[in-house]
Amino acid sequence: MWSFPVTTAPPPRLKEEMCEDVYKIGGISSVSVGRVETDVLKPGMVVNFTPVNVMTEVKSVEMHHKALSEALLGDNVGFNAKNVSVNGIHCVNIAGDSKKDPPMEATGFTTQVIILNLPGQISAAYAHIACKFAELKEEIDHSSGKKLEDGPKFLKSSDAAIVDMVPGKPMYVKSFSDYPHLGHFTVCDIRQTVAFGAIKAVDKKAAGASKVTKSAQKAEKDK
């Protein structure tokens, strides 16, 4: 078993939900289904979906066909994303409070990664996955985190390292210290898990203009 020296901290209050599916229900419009990952989700909140960058109002929240005044951390719920079509948001999008550190797409992130069962080597530009290993910054001891070498040319099975990674498609992640559930990952290739890691820092994409629905505009004016 590998030890993984990463500092943890209490999750921030970001009011985020990861969408597991999106449905079209007659008379209700789009319903996003997912798990509340931080804090609470309430009707009337204005949320931003990333990475699609859509802002809308939460019209209602339900669990097992029962309306809720609020959904708490860990609840699996459905909520009505008003004025958004089923094609406007997608599975694994993140919905977060538009006013309090809204979720933003990542352009890159620094990770602490351990290589598992890999035939061969991983070098910079390794990209047979959703993210590219852009730079191998330093090799470290997987138990203590102590630096062993700057800029290793490659990594092999059992090696641990600090690596800069670049997503190959729109992606949202958090640092492990801020929020563990969105701050760790596995690397799968050749039909097996070849590495796993924790995210230490995230480079966020510059905020662009969100597509704001009419319900979100009205909700903002009413506050």
Automatic annotation (TrEMBL):
<dbReference type="InterPro" id="IPR054696">
    <property type="entry name" value="GTP-eEF1A_C"/>
</dbReference>
<keyword id="KW-0648">Protein biosynthesis</keyword>
<protein>
    <submittedName>
        <fullName>Elongation factor 1-alpha 1</fullName>
    </submittedName>
</protein>
<keyword id="KW-0963">Cytoplasm</keyword>
<keyword id="KW-0251">Elongation factor</keyword>
<keyword id="KW-0342">GTP-binding</keyword>
<feature type="domain" description="Translation elongation factor EFTu-like">
    <location>
        <begin position="31"/>
        <end position="87"/>
    </location>
</feature>
<dbReference type="Pfam" id="PF03144">
    <property type="entry name" value="GTP_EFTU_D2"/>
</dbReference>
<keyword id="KW-0547">Nucleotide-binding</keyword>
<dbReference type="GO" id="GO:0005525">
    <property type="term" value="F:GTP binding"/>
</dbReference>
<dbReference type="InterPro" id="IPR004161">
    <property type="entry name" value="EFTu-like_2"/>
</dbReference>
<dbReference type="Pfam" id="PF22594">
    <property type="entry name" value="GTP-eEF1A_C"/>
</dbReference>
<comment type="similarity">
    <text>Belongs to the TRAFAC class translation factor GTPase superfamily. Classic translation factor GTPase family. EF-Tu/EF-1A subfamily.</text>
</comment>
<feature type="domain" description="GTP-eEF1A C-terminal">
    <location>
        <begin position="109"/>
        <end position="200"/>
    </location>
</feature>
<dbReference type="InterPro" id="IPR009000">
    <property type="entry name" value="Transl_B-barrel_sf"/>
</dbReference>
<dbReference type="GO" id="GO:0003746">
    <property type="term" value="F:translation elongation factor activity"/>
</dbReference>
<dbReference type="GO" id="GO:0005737">
    <property type="term" value="C:cytoplasm"/>
</dbReference>
<dbReference type="InterPro" id="IPR009001">
    <property type="entry name" value="Transl_elong_EF1A/Init_IF2_C"/>
</dbReference>
